[in-house]
Amino acid sequence: MTKIKAFKAIRPVRSKAHLVASRAVSTYKNSILEAKLESNPFSFIHIIHPEFFENDNTRTLPNTIERFLKVKDKYEEFAERGILQQDEEEAFYVYRQSTPNHSYLGVIGGASIQEYKDNKIKKHEATLASREAMFTNYLDIVGFNAEPVLLSHKKSEELDLVLSKIVEKRPEYEFATTDESTHELWITTQEEVKLIQDAYANIETCYIADGHHRSASSVRLHDLIAAKGDYSKEKNYNSFLSFFIDEERLNIMPFNRLCNTLNGHSKSSLLNLVESHFEVKELKRPKPPEQLHDIHMFIDRTWYRLRLRTDMHSKLDAVSSIDAEILTRYILSPVLGIHDLTTDENISFQSGEDGILAIEHSVNSGVNQVGFLLYPVTMEQLKAVADENAIMPPKSTYIEPKMRSGLTIYRIDE
Fold first, then answer.
1. pLDDT tens column, 98-119
2. Domain span at 407
3. Are residues 43 and 176 in the same domain?
4. Crossing angle, helix 190-200 and helix 157-166, to 10 degrees?
5. How far apart are CA 395 and CA 399, in angstroms?
6. Rounded-to-integer distance, Cα 168 and Cα 56, Å
7. Tens digit of pLDDT for each residue in 318-337?
8. Bridge pairing between strands 255-259 and 347-351
9. 55, 116, 162, 231: most buried, per Cβ within 10 A?
10. Rounded CA gap, 135 and 130, in Å?
11. Structural contact between residues 3 and 117, judged by C-beta atoms closer than 8 angstroms
């Protein structure tokens, strides 16, 4: 069964929800970030980036206690000004994000730390101890979490029925953003809380789609608190803020690869080496790969389809079946000399939402020598890797929805 915890969210007052909610700071260019902070005094970015307008003499260093204290102070200032309010009763928050091409509907609530430890919440990415420690320190000092972990699970007809009735009502929030997305949020009644918990009790396993460091850090903080002895099973730190969503509603896109080296090879010698593992066909027009184990390569203003030879399929386990791993194993490492994707400066990554034109522009401009379009990882592949307690290759998936920060804030020590 999956335990999901209701909580008393701290959230924007209705009139300011569209002004408070923000994308992750890392997704904004500095010029846009500056414009947003100058023009919108209610943006949640003021809380998570409180030192933006400080001069070099007063600006605190990133990821320090001093900076985290400034985040906490700004958060408390928003509460004192009445921009944020806390609900009086525990609830779930049904959230729907609608884009021109997709609609994402799910439940914001607390995911169980114990189920994470028991591997009922499964992972497919490795985490860095240094980042875990930094995020743990951040959560401990600021005392809240504002960006949910994305958890996927199997489709549930029982849950769909409950959610379909909730979304018939007027949402608490409904607003559009400049990326042509619409955001809606419903607050559940106590009766609906019970119905949602009952539906999740019939779901055995969840998978982390996005937020491995955030979830691992929450678990680490829980253990630190428990070790101090002042521990309660009723506190929010026994769970971590999550957005639970039916796996069929996710949109999984690839991270495409760009390389600024041919490792001394000419185009013809590169193609000859690639043919030892792939069937190579020149494409008349650019298009995304149409099936698993098809990789499209762009070099010298020409697109090629690289289709993994069928005799290689029998050698594929869960991780090896990922096209990003196939590309590394048979081309990037042995041919282009790129062995460590996390440190090698000869490779960069481009999210699938950027598409074909971004690959062509980068190669045609000479910034890179060759580009690769990948077929998206399937949900079955992701689950297979997680079920084997294995780790996905770096930058294998770009998964939507991307959640807005600041819509539902989770107080950790409550």
1. 999 999 999 999 999 999 999 9
2. 4-251+400-411
3. yes
4. 160
5. 11
6. 51
7. 999 999 999 999 999 999 99
8. antiparallel
9. 116
10. 9
11. no
